[in-house]
Amino acid sequence: MSYNSRTLPSREALARVHKSSHHAIDVSGADLVLNLITTADLIRANIYTQLAKDYDVSEGKFALLMWLYSEGKTCTSELAQKVGVTSATISVMVKRMLAAPEPLICMSKSGNDGRSRLITLSEAGVRLIQKALPQHIEAVQAFADVLNAEERESLISMLRKLLRK
């Protein structure tokens, strides 16, 4: 598979910039991070563009639907945290999704706290996830096809090491 991506500065260009600033550093770290960011952006753009085209679902909506599919009924504050957005953003997302002609989610009051709302997938949401998930997994896996099993495990290990820093 070939994908369009932006052109990154070469190591030589990075070295020239650092040399002109009179700081002696190894530009491989900057090169690494630029490549990680570009790769992540490229993967996300391709995967979520396809989801939007095929299912009219944004990255945020898909993350919300996947969380509910895997974990079940969740209060809005926890859902915001798990999806990685603010409470205000999740509130707007939920309201918009509930207002859709065929809502993908349902909302109910929490038994513990009448102010808290619990969100769950509707039947339409379950159908969408079950239909979209196999294609989504294939699209994600397609990016890793250029690596053999050993390379994949090595890269996973290195990425986890970076995340622990």
UniProtKB/TrEMBL annotation:
GO MF annotations, alphabetized: DNA-binding transcription factor activity
Segments forming domain HTH marR-type: 29-164
One protein family per Pfam: MarR
GO BP annotation list: response to stress
SMART domains: HTH_MARR
Name assigned to this protein: Transcriptional regulator
Organism: Frischella perrara
